[in-house]
Design goal:
The protein has 362 residues and is an alpha/beta fold. It has helices at residues 3-16, 23-33, 36-45, 56-68, 83-86, 119-132, 147-157, 179-185, 205-215, 230-240, 258-265, 275-282, 305-317, 322-329, 333-345; strands spanning 72-75, 94-100, 107-112, 137-141, 162-165, 189-193, 219-222, 244-247, 270-271, 320-321, 349-352, 356-359. The strands form 2 sheets. A 9-stranded mixed β-sheet has the order 1-2-6-5-4-3-7-8-9, sandwiched between helices. Strand 5, helix 8 and strand 6 form a beta-alpha-beta unit. Helix 1 (3-16) crosses helix 3 (36-45). The longest helix is centred in the first third of the chain and has 14 residues, at 3-16.
Length: 362
């Protein structure tokens, strides 16, 4: 690193640590003056800002730390700064990054949710990765226990790059249970933080972390959450940034679904139904769906005759619109809806985008 770049990084880190100045003002000052060194000189020449203490010594120690541990420090003025985050008014002026791979992918999505999740979270997240694997996509979350952890683990299992945004410095991993996971992510994704080393994971750091999770992504999906919590903050920030927000509705009386239902009710989030519907909503490429062949296994002995005929009809015409099934069998809509729901819950058929039904093949 040249002396000039080293000097600029020194002042950039020091500027990021100036507490009396907000993130928005820091960004505006930096973009207005073109360099952190010029912001420093401007402050020294301006009476109201002349008394600000620039922590240059701390910045020097941070440069030593990131050099020793091969950490990249990315300025908001750098071309490699995440382009989506750049458009957020309160974007951090510096990001510390460790990992491999390109994080300027054409598709980026955040998946967040509660620590105290249900089994449904595993199903939804696996389904999402299956639906995304044809895309050049990156998966973002916060490395917290619960939904975040499942998201990163599942992304890695599908060989999709995944990034975690931390609420502390890169000299530690919180929670400690996810240390091995974080190390694994360095090979295909990595870790982001705006916090320098020796910054502990204090509770008020995580809302700041959440704005980066929201800002890095084209869309945020909330899998499960209570009415209060970090996922609700992330969803609200994504909405503020004019990003798409989706929420899985869950059961209406389940406390872990009440946050998702509130997001949907307040028009902050669209209902997440399935990956195809989500891809169509985002106008992203949809994977080609192979022709579903009729399974060789016999139809269940326990179904009544009309139910067997419905399954056979879906086999032949799959995927088929509900209206076509209704017209073919000339039955009441409520009765057909009940039978389709029973078959869907039994794992025999699946509902796809456009209110179509197909035989479910594992």
């Amino acid at each position: 690193m040249s002396n000039q770049l080293q000097e600029e990084l020194l002042y950039l880190i020091a500027l990021s640590k100036l507490k009396p100045i907000s993130d928005i003002d820091k960004k505006n000052l930096l973009t207005q003056h073109g360099s952190a060194k010029q912001v420093h000189d401007y402050c020294k020449s301006f009476p109201a800002l002349n008394s600000l203490h620039w922590p240059i010594d701390l910045a020097k120690k941070e440069i030593d730390f990131i050099s020793k541990h091969s950490i990249k420090a990315i300025s908001i003025l750098d071309t490699q700064y995440p382009s989506r985050l750049l458009h957020c008014d309160d974007a951090p002026i510096i990001l510390y990054y460790k990992g491999q791979g390109n994080f300027q992918l054409p598709y980026l999505i955040s998946i967040v949710g509660t620590r105290a999740h249900t089994k449904q979270a595993f199903t939804i997240i696996k389904e999402l990765m299956e639906g995304f694997k044809h895309l050049n996509i990156g998966i973002i979350s916060g490395l917290a226990l619960g939904v975040d952890t499942i998201t990163h683990q599942t992304a890695l299992s599908f060989q999709l790059p995944t990034w975690a945004v931390l609420g502390h410095g890169l000299d530690q991993i919180y929670p400690t249970q996810n240390r091995k996971l974080a190390i694994a992510m360095l090979e295909n994704g990595g870790l982001f933080t705006e916090f320098s080393s020796q910054t502990s994971p204090l509770h008020f750091h995580f809302p700041k972390r959440n704005r980066i999770v929201a800002g890095l992504s084209d869309a945020t999906i909330v899998v499960e959450t209570a009415i209060q919590g970090g996922s609700m903050i992330t969803a609200g920030l994504a909405f503020k940034y004019n990003r798409e927000v989706f929420a899985a509705p869950g059961k209406i009386h389940d406390p872990k679904s009440k946050g998702c239902l509130a997001l949907i009710k307040n028009n902050i989030a669209s209902i997440y139904h399935d990956p195809i519907h989500l891809l169509e909503s985002l106008q992203w490429p949809v994977p080609s769906i192979p022709k579903i062949k009729k399974p060789s296994n016999q139809l269940s002995f326990y179904w009544d005759e009309i139910t067997k005929q419905i399954v056979e009809f879906i086999d032949i015409h799959s995927p088929v619109q509900e209206e076509e099934i209704l017209a073919h069998f000339s039955m009441e809509r409520n009765l057909l809806g009940a039978k389709l729901l029973d078959l869907e819950l039994d794992g025999v058929i699946e509902r796809q985008a456009g209110n179509q039904y197909a035989r479910k093949i594992d």
